[in-house]
Specification:
Elements lengths: L22 H6 L31 H15 L5 H14 L10 H9 L3 H19 L6 H5 L2 H7 L1 H12 L7 H10 L9 H12 L4 H6 L4 H17 L35 H22 L3 H10 L1 H22 L6
């Protein structure tokens, strides 16, 4: 039987619309009867983390907050993000100060048998879980745990975008699948857009044939659907947006988020030689993209730690090759 933080192989996957649809909000709009959830069972019923009101007895408001947070952690098996917010609120307000356990980690371990490392992991992950639940997904903590590297380098919004993009491919989301995707993604930054992240994830999970990669025009998801994705995610996670080109553009059009080839067809009257040269460029571009998907900073660091000398030689060759390619393609382009 899977634990609270593991994938459940028997769980029937729900198919909300995610970033591109209304998610939970659209479902709630169809409800005719509003039932108030018990305190501690929804994120809204957990008070926001704040400093303690004093050093002595808990105030009435603190008592209510304490009870709500304890109920929230009791629901750990249902929604880890509610437990995470509950833990942060209790820790931030020192609400456990009259429990007989001055140390918060000791209080949590005694009350719920949750380790200190698990406590801070839940605190670190609850905002991602909240955002995904508002989009209609039902992530498990073991799955969000695989997004910690993305969160650390690019923030919560990027982590949410990765999960959402994986879920919208139609594949069953598991911790192992997310681990594989994050390993193969190029390094992300906080400025990465949801359209870019979604396109990269789809390239990993459903890569088209090499010839089609270079010949296809900019996908609708990056142009139109990507705009909707940005708007939906912004509604559940606050933060500035901004386009960034995370993948090196090789002859790509200016408005393509990852430097894909433009949609303009080649000259039908061109010579066979010109067609062969264009095919060569397309093949080179496809190979470069495939090579990029197979690299990640953690993999490079592990290679350097394992065999410093050999890794340094290979990295120097990669730098040299990329410089040569850059000089080769540095020609005058049509305006």
């Amino acid at each position: 039987m899977p634990g609270a933080f593991d994938d459940d192989p028997t769980e029937t996957a729900l198919r909300p619309k995610g970033l591109l649809g209304g998610g939970v909000s659209s479902v709630l709009q169809e409800a005719h009867v509003v039932v108030r959830a018990p305190v501690g069972t929804t994120l809204e019923s957990i008070p926001a983390p704040r400093p303690p009101a004093g050093e002595g007895e808990l105030t009435p408001d603190e008592e209510k907050a304490f009870e709500a947070c304890k109920a929230g952690v009791d629901n750990l098996h249902k929604a880890f993000w509610i437990a995470g917010k509950s833990l942060e609120t209790m820790a931030a307000g020192n609400l456990h100060r009259n429990s007989g356990h001055p140390n918060f980690a000791d209080f949590v371990r005694y009350t719920w048998d949750i380790s200190e490392s698990q406590v801070y992991r839940l605190i670190d992950e609850w905002r991602i879980g909240e955002a995904l639940s508002q989009l209609g997904w039902h992530p498990r903590e073991s799955q969000v745990r695989e997004l910690t590297d993305i969160k650390a380098s690019a923030g919560d919004k990027a982590a949410v975008a990765v999960y959402d993009a994986v879920a919208r491919t139609g594949k069953r989301v598991t911790a192992n699948l997310l681990k594989d995707v994050t390993r193969r993604l190029p390094p992300l930054t906080p400025d990465a857009t949801q359209a870019e992240i979604g396109q990269m994830v789809r390239g990993i999970l459903t890569p088209p044939p090499a010839r089609e990669v270079a010949a296809e025009s900019k996908p609708e998801s990056a142009a139109t659907a990507g705009t909707d994705a940005e708007r939906s995610l912004s509604s559940v996670m606050a933060g500035p947006e901004g386009p960034v080109h995370n993948i090196t553009t090789v002859g790509g059009q200016e408005n393509s988020p990852i430097g894909e080839s433009g949609s303009r067809a080649s000259n039908p009257n061109g010579s066979a030689r010109n067609s062969a040269d264009l095919d060569r460029l397309n093949e080179a571009l496809a190979l470069l993209r495939e090579a990029e998907r197979g690299l990640s900073k953690p993999a490079v660091r592990r290679a350097i730690e394992a065999e410093p000398a050999a890794a340094a030689t290979v990295l120097s060759e990669i730098d040299s090759t990329l410089n040569k390619i850059g000089r080769t393609v540095a020609v005058r382009r049509p305006e």
